[in-house]
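Lecture 7 notes: from sequence to structure.
We start with the chain below.
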Amino acid sequence: MYDSWLRLGFDTVRLGLEAQTVVALRLAKLSCGGAAAQAEAQRMVTEKLEAAAEAAMTLATGGTAERVVRDYRRKVQANARRLSRG
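Predicted structure tokens for the same chain:
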């Protein structure tokens, strides 16, 4: 029982740290301005709305908090890879 709570806690902390990396990378990209920054700002808003809707659907269909955090981490990690490439 405690194992699942502990794992959820650690995954949530890792999500927070990974998200901070994405925030820093996005701020760097946005600070340059131009078309790429505009596209990133649009993508950021769209992704957040889609991720929130997906999380709500996961929970509404009987999914767990662990699943929601795992899905968010996958998306955040993909953004970090994409943004770190340039």
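Points to note: The helical segments are 2-31, 34-60, 65-84. The two ends are 42 Å apart (CA to CA).
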